[in-house]
Design goal:
This protein has 2 domains: 86 residues, Rossmann fold (3-Layer(aba) Sandwich), CATH 3.40.50.10860; 123 residues, NAD(P)-binding Rossmann-like Domain (Rossmann fold, 3-Layer(aba) Sandwich). The longest helix has 23 residues. The radius of gyration is 19 Å and the shape is globular. The chain contains 10 helices and 11 strands. Strand 2, helix 2 and strand 3 form a beta-alpha-beta unit. With 285 residues, it is of the alpha/beta class. Helix 3 runs parallel beside helix 4, helix 6 crosses helix 7 and helix 6 crosses helix 10. The protein has a 6-stranded parallel beta sheet. The chain has a 3-stranded parallel beta sheet with strand order 3-2-4, sandwiched between helices. Strands 9-10 form a two-stranded antiparallel sheet. 42% of the residues lie in helices and 16% in strands.
Length: 285
C-alpha cells in the first residue's frame, strides 16, 4: 500500500523549527521579523488566504501587518504604497495578494516589489534567478511541493517527472526545481495530446493545473510518487488534480487534498521572509 504524505504533520514539525529561528533572531540580533501583506479588492478566497497568513505569522512570532485597499485604487497609488513598504525597515518581506482587480496593471505592481523583499517571487528578478539556478526566493507553493518531495529521501537524479500545468506561479517554477535535481522533466498542459502516455511513464508527477481528479488510477504506473497542489471544489468538497483514493494501493507516495501541499505554503512564505531578514540584516541563520 502506498504512503500518504502527511502535510499537516510535516508542517507542524517544520513550523517549530521556524519558530526557533524567529526567536533566535529576536534574542541574539534584537530583530523582529516583519512581513507586509497587501490586499486589494474584495476577492473572498484571497481574503481567507491573507487571514491565514496573518494567523500563522502571529503564532510563530512574526510581526505581520495586513494593508487593505478597495478595488478602485489606481495602479499608481498601489505602486506608491509598495514603494513605501520597500523603504520601511520594519518589513523584511512583502507579499501582494494576486490576482488584482482588472482595472490595475498587475505586472507593474509585481515589478514594484523590491527584489530583496519579494518573498513570494511576484516580480521577474527572483524568477529569473531561479531559472538561472542562482540564489533567490522560490515561489511558495512550488517550494513546498519540492520540499515534500525531497523529504521522502528518494534518489531523484535521472528520474522522469511530469509537471501538470505551465503557470508562472506553480508549473514552470516546479519544472525548474526538478531540472535542478537533474531529473528529466515534461510539462503537460491543456494542449497536450495523449496525456496518459506521459503520466504512465513518469516516476514523479507534480500536479498544479486546477482540474478536479484529472489523473486517474489507470494513468499512473506502479510505484510512482505524486505531489498534488491542485485545489478544486467538487460536490462541495475540496479535491486535488489527482484522484488519490483510487490509486493509494498503486503508488509509492502521494499527497492528499486537503492536508498535503497546502499546510506548507505559508510556512515557505515565512521561511523566505526569514532568509530576506538574514540578508538585509547581515547575519546567517
Amino acid at each position: 500500500m502506498g504512503q500518504l504524505i502527511d502535510g499537516k504533520n510535516f508542517g507542524k514539525v517544520y513550523a517549530e523549527s521556524l519558530k526557533e529561528k524567529i526567536q533566535w533572531i529576536k534574542d541574539n540580533r534584537n530583530v523582529n521579523l516583519g512581513l507586509a501583506v497587501v490586499y486589494i479588492g474584495d476577492d473572498k478566497a484571497s481574503s481567507v488566504y491573507v487571514n491565514s497568513i496573518i494567523k500563522k505569522c502571529t503564532s510563530l512570532g512574526v510581526h505581520a501587518e495586513r494593508f487593505d485597499f478597495s478595488g478602485d485604487i489606481t495602479t499608481q497609488e498601489a505602486i506608491d504604497f509598495i514603494e513605501k513598504l520597500n523603504a520601511d525597515d520594519k518589513f523584511h518581506g512583502i507579499i501582494c495578494q494576486f490576482p488584482l482587480p482588472k482595472n490595475l496593471d498587475e505586472l507593474a505592481v509585481r515589478q514594484t516589489i523590491a527584489p530583496q523583499k519579494d518573498v513570494d517571487s511576484a516580480g521577474s528578478a527572483n524568477i529569473g534567478r531561479l531559472y538561472s539556478n542562482l540564489d533567490c526566493f522560490i515561489p511558495c507553493t512550488p517550494k513546498g511541493m519540492h520540499l515534500l518531495l525531497k523529504s521522502l529521501g528518494e534518489e531523484l537524479t535521472g528520474k522522469k517527472a511530469v509537471v501538470l500545468g505551465r503557470s508562472n506561479v506553480v508549473g514552470k517554477p516546479v519544472a525548474q526545481l526538478l531540472l535542478n535535481e537533474n531529473m528529466t522533466v515534461s510539462i503537460c498542459h491543456s494542449r497536450t495530446k495523449n496525456l496518459k502516455e506521459y503520466t504512465l511513464d513518469a516516476d514523479v508527477i507534480m500536479a498544479g493545473v486546477g482540474v478536479p481528479h484529472l489523473i486517474k488510477e489507470d494513468m499512473v504506473k506502479e510505484g510512482a510518487i505524486i505531489i498534488d497542489a491542485g485545489i478544486n471544489v467538487l460536490e462541495d468538497k475540496l479535491v486535488g488534480d489527482v484522484d488519490y483514493k483510487s490509486m493509494i494501493d498503486k503508488v509509492k507516495h502521494i499527497t492528499p487534498v486537503p492536508g498535503g501541499v497546502g499546510p506548507t505554503t505559508i510556512l515557505m512564505l515565512i521561511e523566505n521572509t526569514l532568509e530576506a531578514c538574514s540578508r538585509q540584516c547581515g547575519f546567517e541563520l
